Amino acid sequence: MKLIDIINNGKYNLSFEVFPPKAESSFESVKAAVEQIAALQPSFMSVTYGAGGGTSRYTLDIAKDIMEKYHVPTLAHLTCVSSTKETVKNKITQIKEAGIKNVMALRGDLTPELEKGDRSLWDYRHAIDLVRELKESDTDLCIGCACYPEIHPESKNQIEDIKYLKEKVDAGCSFITTQMFFDNNLLYNFLYKIREAGITVPVIPGIMPITKANQVERAIKLSGSFMPVRFKALVDRFGCDDDAMRDAGIAYATDQIIDLYANGIKNVHVYSMNKPEVASAILNNLSGIVGK
Ligand code: FAD
Question: Is 136 within a domain?
């Protein structure tokens, strides 16, 4: 099923992101966690793709499992940074053979080694190159791409970031999913600016439930997200008590999602980090809203 049909179904949708195992030894435990999340029957699930190739070989296995065993619509991520045309074309063939209709087209993060390398040798410099490649290979694929309410860390400013986002969308994206954020006002400001710039496709906010204090530093480093005072107070107070932090993190994420729904946003994606208990708690908190 194409994601755009779910995104536009007029209901309050909630979806989850999972990531494949980093090593073969953890394949079974990750598969079990993913299956528990799929059993919750979210609106769809996305499966990430390791930029450096580390976890990428499992993305399709996991995505197929979700689709075939749980009949949950699936979005397979694909990155292109430092890949050759041949590798990407092979991956696209595998995606199509697996019956996957939805692909998240990403550049991937620049590792320190890649930063040092010779970029003139790269077949793909930006996600837009992958969007074009996917569109060329199959016009029927439903393609999504990433956006950054707080600006991509490599961008000079938001105007430039939004200009490139528009080019990426115009190349063939049906929807865009945001980087995590902890203050909904940042999302509302971003939405205003991209609509003004002529980007009209649906935007799916990405919400990261922080359920452990040590996630905070990693999340900020990864996304550069602003931490509101209200959120900092919660981490300061409950960060050293695992049970309390889990409850507080789930409550904060739930509150963010309810505010998004209340402000007219119909689709929210949760970075569930392969934690079925977190996905299930959030879905339970929203059981009177999701699907209506
Ligand atoms: P791009 O769209 O290429 O943008 C990267 C930077 O280049 C931005 O600063 C942009 O403004 C600029 N830019 C874009 N186009 C041009 C152009 N034509 N000329 C000049 N500059 C340009 N990473 C993974 O490795 N695996 C995943 O599965 C994964 N999933 C993600 C899912 C979401 C929802 C998000 C938000 C991020 C995800 N990432 C993932 C991280 C992502 O790969 C990084 O954030 C990466 O640094 C940028 O990827 P992008 O696709 O946004 O790149």
Answer: yes
User: What are the structure tokens assigned to 186, written together?
Assistant: 């940042």
Residue 101 lies in a domain: yes
The answer to whether the CB of 122 is under 6 A from ligand 1 is no
**Hey, what are 236's tokens?**
């300061």
Report the number of distinct structural domains present in the chain.
Answer: 1
Q: Would residue 291 count as lying in a domain?
A: no
Query: CB neighbours of 245 closer than 8 A, spacing ≥ 6?
Result: 210, 211, 212, 213, 235, 238, 239
Q: Where are the alpha helices (DSSP H) in 2-157?
A: 3-7, 27-38, 56-70, 85-97, 112-116, 127-137
C-alpha of 225 from chain center = 15
Model pLDDT for residues 164-210, shown as the tens digit of each residue:
999 999 999 999 999 999 999 999 999 999 999 999 999 999 999 99
| 292: in domain | no
Query: Which of 45, 75, 164, 170 maximizes ligand 1 atoms within 8 Å of its Cβ, making it the mutation to test the pocket?
Result: 164
Q: SS3 for 46? A: strand
Tokens of 215: 């996630």
Share of the chain above pLDDT 70, in %: 98
Ligand 1 nearest-atom number relative to CA 51: 25
How far from each other are the two terminal CA atoms of the chain, in whole angstroms?
20
CA dist., res. 227 & res. 48, Å (int): 25
